[in-house]
Design goal:
heterodimer; A: alpha/beta; Rossmann fold; six-stranded mixed beta sheet; 32% helix; 26% strand; globular; B: mainly alpha; 23 helices; 0% strand
Chain lengths: 257, 529
């Protein structure tokens, strides 16, 4: 049996008395697009932080590509790509400078760096080289962050809300890349709030509630063949009703609105 | 005018100010700020208000003295707000205020009322008021005229500061504007020393300057505070005219949009520029990080202003301090301690205020350093190498210039002393800066060319370092004169070796601390801490 691309065991992250993630355990198989869902503030970004070395877990274990992972593990960091929630860009740089910097730090040789940066800028329509990253629109900044995450051809890709603010053509291109990426046996772990996208793109989904507690995990590809999602003896024909059922999100109706 | 809405926004500004005190650091800052303000108000009220009143009335020169004191306060207000950035916080920008149902005129009033209600400006209001009360208590002038003069002068001072700040901002946003600005400030600093002999030779010039001064707002306020006749009314009229004229200029500047910087059309993509070539000496692992820091800071207006002006500033300091070396003056220890001071300052003046807050301007980019497949602290070390290299690069040209144009003849031993002093300050200061970057960071504004972006700790290190170098050699010259003579030429190079050891140890141990504090740093730099 192939090893899991990501394995999380009893992960917890606390800030003083506040628990952001509590006793989270899950496995992600290689070659899959894994959707990690949850309401706002449920601990999705904190979990991604712990999985990518941005944050140190308070307790629990993270394994990536079969190796124990922590923030000091440079060998694993070289094999993963991350598009963080806050993008992590350096505003005064031009896109090609930023991408070349990331590529060089990931050990790409000069010829490969130049080739890949040019190809990514071209493919993602970031060819206006007169603007610094600070002058880019939100969507363009997101494209740059996506390019930085994939430039070194990682084996596992972490994307924190990747499609928000990007235009439909950009989203379509990114989805196409992600499918090709997983067809080659590589893995994508992503968070998003757009459930329709998750149904169309993801193979597996996990749903967490506050504070970072896993409440459901399953294969959502069944939806494409008119199958149903099972949960606590109930059947759901889409992710949205399942998500609302599990997270208990209810909004008070405002009669004046 | 929707006064209720304007009032709500002003209240919100103070609520936000108060909200900053909810954190532990905020409480400490509030305590210190409150304490310092109290001490300043008490001492300045005594010196600027009551003191000025007493001296003025007794000497029979009440009007001139009041004008002089108010001119000092006015100039301090301008300088502190424009150069140091105090009291100029745009808590609500025009764009932010557009979210509220306010018309253009109401937005302008709101912005400026909020500006004037800043604690910094209130301090200046209290100083003006203290002067007026001081004069009134000693029987010079009327309270009504005095109070009106204070209100008008305060408004005029604030508006003048805004106008000046906008002009400076527009100048510094242009290419080389920051350098022109700092050059102008240095020239302004030299004016008193250069004017003294000119004025002595031309008494008519003094009379002309005095006449011009009398129609300035603070001099006019001095008249309004010390007279109760028609002259007081005329003086109030002068301040009013100034205030209205400055307000019209401010309104025109606000309406006159700033020209955007010329945008190049698809500039040529450069894969390896001089930054990459310079940083290549650090090897393939650290080189790209050093090149990144070089590029990052070289595009910062403030850095581009300060670093190239380091040597001219040092020369100015040498010129200025050398005039104070006669016995009995503050720098009476002779030319050698002054030279040591200047060479010591060269070791950090170009990069100091950035090195003590290395990550202060990277914002969300800080996260990127943690995602790279390197030791997380590599970015800290690479940044420090960059600062040390840049400041270190100034030492040799400074030594060559000193050998050619120095005010005292130098032999090899003297040069070893001076270069040793520079190196000691370079490594000692940048070692301390590593700790300050981790223990006292502050989120700064990358695009702002002026103002003080440092934390309390950062200010202590930069200002403390400057004061130590200014007075340290002077104290040494007094208590142990032989120590700064060429007989002990080897002492500064030895000190430099100790400083290198401290720097190396700091690199190592600060890297450990970086790992422990990186989550806190990330939260702070992303504005969540």
């Amino acid at each position: 049996m192939a090893m899991d691309a990501i394995r999380i065991s009893n992960l917890a992250k606390r800030y003083g008395n506040v628990t952001a993630v509590e006793d989270l355990s899950l496995e992600v198989r290689p070659g899959r697009i894994f959707g990690f869902l949850g309401p706002n503030g449920s601990g999705k970004s904190t979990t991604i932080g712990c999985l990518t070395g941005l944050l140190d877990p308070t307790s629990g274990k993270v394994e990536i590509l079969g190796q124990k992972f922590d923030s000091e593990n440079a060998a694993i960091k070289r094999r993963i790509g991350v598009m963080p929630e806050t993008l992590g860009l350096f505003d005064p740089l031009y896109a090609h400078e930023f991408l070349a910097f990331v590529a060089r730090m990931f050990g790409l040789d000069e010829a490969t760096t130049r080739k890949r940066v040019s190809e990514l800028l071209d493919a993602l329509e970031l060819t206006d080289s007169s603007k610094t990253l600070a002058e880019y629109s939100t969507g363009m900044r997101k494209r740059v962050a996506f390019a930085a995450a994939v430039i070194h051809s990682p084996e596992v890709l972490f994307l924190d809300e990747p499609f928000e603010s990007i235009d439909p053509a950009g989203v379509a291109l990114m989805k196409q890349w992600l499918r090709r990426f997983t067809d080659q046996g590589r893995t994508v772990f992503m968070t998003t709030h757009v459930l329709e996208t998750v149904e169309r793109v993801c193979h597996d989904v996990a749903i967490i509630t506050k504070p970072g507690k896993l409440v459901w995990q399953g294969d959502v590809t069944v939806l494409a063949t008119d199958g149903k999602l099972q949960c606590n003896g109930q059947e759901f024909d889409a992710l949205e009703p399942l998500f609302l059922h599990l997270t208990g999100e209810r909004y008070k109706d405002l009669d004046w609105l | 005018m929707d006064l209720e809405l304007i009032g709500n926004l002003i209240r919100l500004r103070y609520k936000l100010l108060w909200a900053n005190t909810r954190t532990r650091n905020g409480k400490i800052a509030l305590f210190f700020a409150g304490y310092l303000l109290l001490v300043m108000v008490i001492s300045l009220l005594a010196a600027g208000g009551v003191g000025a009143g007493m001296v003025a009335i007794r000497s029979g020169h009440g009007t001139v003295m009041a004008g002089a004191v108010l001119t000092g306060i006015f100039a301090q207000g301008l300088l502190a707000s424009v150069i140091l950035g105090f009291g100029m916080t745009a808590i609500f920008s025009e764009t932010e205020l557009r979210r509220y149902p306010l018309r253009a005129a109401e937005r302008r009033v709101t912005r400026h009322f909020i500006g004037m209600a800043d604690p910094f400006w209130i301090l200046f209001f209290v100083l003006d008021l203290g002067t007026a009360f001081g004069l009134y208590l000693f029987g010079a002038g009327g309270l009504g005229y005095g109070f009106l003069a204070v209100l008008l002068l305060f408004a005029c001072n604030y508006i003048a500061a805004r106008v000046l700040a906008m002009l400076v901002e527009r100048l510094t946003s242009r290419k080389f504007g920051s350098m022109i600005m700092l050059g102008a400030v240095v020239c302004l600093g030299m004016v008193p020393a250069m004017m003294e002999p000119v004025l002595k030779k031309n008494p008519a010039l003094v009379a002309g300057l005095k006449h011009a001064w009398q129609i300035t707002p603070p001099a006019a306020a001095g008249v309004a505070m010390t007279r109760v006749d028609l002259a007081a009314l005329q003086a109030l009229g002068v301040i009013l005219v100034w205030t209205v004229a400055l307000f019209a200029l401010l309104a025109a500047l606000e309406r006159w949009p700033q020209k955007p910087a010329a945008v190049a059309q698809n500039i040529k993509v450069v894969w390896e520029d001089r930054m990459d070539r310079m940083a290549a000496v650090y090897g393939p692992k650290t080189g790209p990080l050093v090149a990144h820091w070089l590029r990052f800071y070289w595009r910062n207006n403030r850095f581009r202003t300060i670093y190239p002006l380091s040597l001219p500033l040092a020369a100015f300091l040498l010129f200025f301090l050398s005039r104070q070396t006669h016995a009995g003056r503050p720098f009476g220890g002779g030319p050698v301690p002054v030279a040591l001071t200047v060479f010591g300052i060269i070791g950090f003046v170009g990069t100091g205020q950035f090195a003590v807050n290395q990550f202060g301007y990277v914002g969300g980019g800080f996260r990127r350093f943690l995602l790279l497949p390197t030791d997380p602290a590599a970015a800290l070390r690479a940044g420090s190498y960059m600062f040390v290299s840049l400041s270190g690069a100034l030492i040799i040209p400074a030594a060559v210039l000193w050998s050619l144009f120095g005010p005292i003849p130098s032999d090899a031993r003297m040069l070893a002393m001076l270069v040793g002093c520079s190196l000691a300050s370079l490594f000692l200061f940048h070692g301390v800066a590593l700790w300050t970057s981790l223990l006292g960071p502050r989120r700064g504004h990358y695009k702002q060319a002026f103002g003080n972006d440092l934390s309390f700790a950062g200010n202590v290190v930069v200002i403390g370092g400057m004061l130590t170098l200014l007075f340290g050699p002077q104290i040494l010259a007094k208590v142990w004169p032989a120590a700064i003579s060429t007989a002990y030429w080897f002492a500064p190079p030895l000190l430099a070796l100790v400083a290198v050891a401290f720097y190396v140890a700091s690199l190592r141990y600060a890297s450990t601390l970086f790992r422990a504090r990186r989550e806190r740093l990330m939260a702070l730099l992303e504005g969540k801490g």
